[in-house]
Amino acid sequence: MRCKEIRPVIRTANLRETVDFYVNSLGFTCGGYSEEWGWASFHRDDIEIMAAVPNAHMPFEKPLFTGSIYITVDDADAFWEEFRDKARVFYPIEDFDFGMREFALLDNNGYLLQFGHPIA
């Protein structure tokens, strides 16, 4: 028995704006979109993130996720150069004592996205 993958689903009040952010700012490809279902998926390389409009059973004023989505990349510096002027920077690229070189951005909803690679 083993876990195979994780595909986070983020909640958003504006599905189209969220898809546009991930596609136009972060270079993801929209793999599925349905206004009727209030759902979309986008991917880049082996990463997939889904977005959904909250349903009637879910109270929603704004995103309340207190964690982050951590994406391990092969070259954090290259991603930093690609993204740093396209999103709100939470913290710039730096080396951390725990062995990662990383940076963090906020998406259009305020979700924290961290990108990093291990330091040799």
Record keyword descriptors for this entry.
alpha/beta, 2 helices, 120 residues, four-stranded mixed beta sheet, 16% helix
List the helices and strands and how they pair.
Elements: E1 9-11, H1 15-25, E2 29-34, E3 39-44, E4 47-52, E5 69-72, H2 76-83, E6 88-95, E7 100-106, E8 112-118
Parallel strand pairs: 1-4, 5-8
Antiparallel strand pairs: 2-3, 3-4, 6-7, 7-8
Architecture overview:
This protein is of the alpha/beta class and 120 residues long. The protein contains 2 helices and 8 strands, in the order βαββββαβββ. The chain has helices at 15-25, 76-83, and strands spanning 9-11, 29-34, 39-44, 47-52, 69-72, 88-95, 100-106, 112-118. The strands form 2 sheets. The protein has a 4-stranded mixed sheet, covered by helices on one side. Strands 5-8-7-6 form a 4-stranded mixed sheet, covered by helices on one side. A hairpin with a 5-residue loop joins strand 7 and strand 8. It is globular and about 45 Å long. It starts with 8 loop residues before the first strand and ends with a strand. The mean pLDDT is 93.
User: Secondary-structure element sequence?
Assistant: EHEEEEHEEE
Give the overall shape. globular
Please report the distance between the alpha carbons of the first and last residues: 31 Å
Helix content estimate = 10-25%
**What is the helix tally?**
2
The largest sheet, given as strand count, sense and whether it forms a barrel, is: 4 strands, mixed
Structural class: alpha/beta
Sheet-strand content, in percent, reads 35-45%
Mean pLDDT, nearest integer? 93
Radius of gyration: 15 Å
| Unreliable stretches | none
Please give the order of strands in the largest beta sheet. 1-4-3-2
| Multimerization state | single chain
The counted number of beta strands is 8
